[in-house]
TrEMBL record:
It is an enzyme of class 3 (hydrolase). It comes from the Bacteria. GO terms for biological process: proteolysis. Residues 264-710 form the Peptidase M3A/M3B catalytic domain. Belongs to the peptidase M3 family. This is oligopeptidase A. Keywords: Hydrolase, Metal-binding, Metalloprotease, Protease, Signal, Zinc. The keyword Zinc-finger does not apply. It holds the Pfam family TOP_N. SUPFAM superfamilies: Metalloproteases ('zincins'), catalytic domain. Binds 1 zinc ion.
Length: 722
């Protein structure tokens, strides 16, 4: 699991990947790692049914730091044993031994991830920076272990390498590449400085994430009954529950999360309140006081730049993209530059439609960012007679989950059966768990945890994580996968209704879970990902939401139980490309700024908010839209390094998605064609990172993906880049 541990884990989204089975293999030259017995519950092997599960009901926050100290020391000891082995370096005694090591540390990260993302508290946030500092120090100790790197390099360059299987060659390369790119080649003062930078960044990433969370919790708008005009009944009910939860009975809370902000901006007729809610959300991390992130951003960029220069790279983005599908910043920017002109041209059309409607109503306003959702919804109704709130009545959270299970059954042959309450420990009462089996053979695949609702202490957004991944090298392990969202919880006895965009996100994150559950790889390291590829599988799964089979079976009215009328379905499909200017531009602005920040000398950036403004103005950013993730709360990029200089990857993956969707659309069985589905599972899901993504896609499609498919999908002119 070392390859995964050496990727600096985001302080906002900690993906806890649990280790392999404790059954060990040994031979004369292999270094084996015996499973220790621990008193600390966080360190103890998962126990109970299903090959053991996380003991969320037994762990306590007070045990986290001691557990991390022990796990880091134990893993360093295991690594020293591998590095000091006097036998010649082989795949088995070096690479496999590394894959087998660090099981206790994997378990620590599982629990850390829950406290970080799902159940954060002031007590946890106080200790978080210190924990990540310890992790950064440990990380540097491993990457700068010269003896270990020499053994890895020996295996990579040995005649044995050519005799290894394709997966074994790839994980050997992944190990070698990870070390070489993360400071293993540095000596003396350069190595020392590299470690110091990692240590400093670990604290800054945690501070950034905690500042954003503080602003999300600290800026709640409370409404009285006379301020509810335009809001749907379902939203009002949920807002009342959110206010009561926060000690404000009789009022209505608009929380500072996207799932609460988006519908408020879409429906509220109170323009000044829309402005306040908009400003609260998009000012996160840029308010006066201790939670302002601007200085932290400058420090992060400066340190990242210095660190990659120690390795001989011109800028951070050049280093980051070297081992990804894009390969270099130029290729990523070329893709974004092809789409950007068409996106902002579409925004101008959308704004013109909205302004004309506002003028006709006598509103006497100029469309501002807090008006965009409100008036676009009016235009949608006028153009397509499509009311988003009407659509929402057919989007029940429970029914959508059943729809996802149906798709998984048709494509992956998976069956989901909810486990009895109390049989598997969970970290919150809202969490439910399903067993996943093969429909035909009944073979156990793993468990799927679902944590769907927003609450205090839970970071915003939606994400997937795994507590254990599939491997077979030490006995077959099952998968423990989790999806996490921030939907607004309806009162007891009522259906939780969500928007069409939220339904797409629900399917998207389930795609990540299916990617994990379908794994057929041998080694833990093969379950890692290539960032501009890992979003592809999840984006592709969104396409099944609009299939007739899903619509007819699962999109039923929450009161009458009747299926969505054909007329409404047709309106949804006709309006599929509506507001694509807004959606594409707000995303692309964030992706472009991510690349600008990481290809510019930090000394020339100055105030990051002003840099954001000037750079976007230079490329014609419409004044009616802002970045989807403005700089001071851009957690993908500044609360860790998972997406830094890599946010473009969503668009890169979307090209693959559009192209792959065409393969299904043109197949005899459409989106449920068995032959195409088999290729999907075999080449794009089950292989994980055991195969180069470009090669895997060519095996599925017979060729590389074409950007034209994306342009057509979004209703943009294919030749708009000319």
């Amino acid at each position: 699991m070392l390859k995964i541990k050496l990727t600096l884990l985001s302080a906002a989204v900690m993906v806890g990947l649990a280790g392999c089975s404790s059954t060990q293999q040994s031979n004369e030259s292999a270094v084996t790692v015996a499973e220790k017995q621990y008193q600390n519950p966080i360190l103890q092997p998962f126990s109970g049914p299903y090959q053991g599960v996380p003991q969320f009901d037994k762990v306590q926050l007070k045990d986290l730091e001691p557990a991390l100290d022990i796990a880091l020391a134990d893993h360093l000891s295991e690594i020293d044993q591998i590095a000091s082995n006097t036998a010649p370096a082989t795949f088995d005694n070096t690479i496999v031994a590394m894959e087998r090591s660090g099981q206790a540390l994997d378990r620590v990260f599982t629990y850390y991830g829950i406290w970080s993302a799902n159940n954060s508290s002031p007590e946890f946030r106080k200790m978080q920076g210190g924990l990540m500092a310890k992790y950064a120090k440990y990380r540097s100790q491993i990457t700068q272990n010269k003896a270990l790197f020499e053994r890895i390099k020996t295996v990579y360059e040995s005649p044995e390498f050519k005799q290894l299987s394709a997966e074994e060659q790839r994980i050997t390369w992944l190990q070698y590449n990870s070390f070489a790119r993360n400071g293993a080649t540095l000596e003396g003062e350069a190595a020392k400085r590299y470690a110091e930078i990692n240590l400093a960044l670990s604290k800054l990433h945690a501070d950034f994430a905690n500042n954003v969370l503080a602003d999300e919790e600290g800026y709640v708008v409370y409404l009285s009954k006379d301020q509810l005009s335009g809001l749907p009944a379902s939203y009002i009910t949920s807002a009342a529950a959110a206010a009561e939860e926060r000690g404000k009975p009789g009022m209505y809370a608009v929380t500072n999360t996207r799932s609460s902000m988006d519908p408020f901006l879409m429906y509220s007729t109170e323009r000044e309140l829309r402005k306040q809610v908009w400003q609260n959300y998009y000012s996160r991390g840029n308010n006066a006081g201790e939670h302002n992130n601007k200085a932290i951003i400058n420090e992060i960029l400066t340190l990242r730049h210095e660190r990659v220069q120690l390795l001989g790279y011109e800028n951070y983005a050049q280093w980051r993209l070297e081992d990804r599908m894009a390969k270099d910043p130029k290729n990523a920017m070329e893709l974004m530059d092809k789409v950007w002109p068409a996106a902002i041209a579409r925004v101008k059309e959308e704004v013109a439609d909205m302004q004309a409607l506002a003028d006709k109503e006598g509103a006497n306003i100029k469309i501002e960012p807090w008006d965009y959702r409100f008036y676009s919804e009016k235009v949608r109704k006028a153009k397509y007679d499509l009311d988003s709130n009407e659509v929402k009545q057919y989007l029940q959270l429970d029914k959508l989950r059943e729809a996802m299970f149906y798709v998984a059954g048709r494509l992956f042959n998976f069956e989901f059966t909810e486990v009895p309450e109390g049989s598997v420990p969970v970290f919150h009462e809202d969490v439910r768990v399903w067993e996943v089996t093969d429909k035909t053979s009944g073979e156990h695949i793993g468990l799927w945890y679902l944590d769907p609702f927003a609450r205090q202490g839970k970071r915003s957004g939606a994400w997937a994580t795994s507590y254990r991944s599939h491997t077979t090298f030490d006995g077959k392990t099952n998968v423990l996968s989790s999806n996490n969202s921030n939907f607004v919880k309806a009162p007891a006895g009522q259906a939780s209704l969500i928007s069409w965009n939220d339904a797409e996100t629900y399917f998207h994150e389930f795609g990540h879970a299916l990617h994990s559950l379908s794994s057929k790889v041998k080694y833990p390291g093969s379950n890692s990902g290539v960032r501009d590829y890992t979003e592809f599988q999840s984006q592709l799964l969104e396409r099944w939401l609009v299939t007739d089979e899903v619509i007819e079976r699962f999109l039923v009215h929450h009161e009458t139980g009747k299926p969505m009328p054909k007329a409404l379905v047709n309106k949804i499909k006709q309006a599929a490309n509506f507001n694509q200017g807004f959606a594409t531009t707000e995303y692309l602005a964030s992706a472009i700024m991510d690349m600008k920040f990481h290809t510019t000398d930090p000394a020339k950036i100055g105030d990051p908010v002003e840099f954001e403004r000037s750079q976007l103005a230079a490329i014609g950013m419409p004044s009616e839209i802002v970045m989807r993730h403005r700089t001071t709360h851009f957690g993908h990029v500044f609360s860790g390094e998972g997406y830094s200089a890599g946010y473009y990857g969503y668009l890169w993956a979307e090209v693959l998605t559009s192209d792959a969707a065409q393969a299904f659309a043109s197949a005899p069985g459409g989106f449920y064609d068995e032959e195409v589905a088999d290729r999907l599972v075999n080449y794009l899901f089950s292989v994980r990172n055991a195969m180069d993504p470009a090669e895997a896609y060519r095996k599925f499609r017979g060729r590389d993906a074409a950007v034209e498919a994306l342009m057509l999908d979004r209703g943009f002119p294919v030749n708009s880049e000319k």
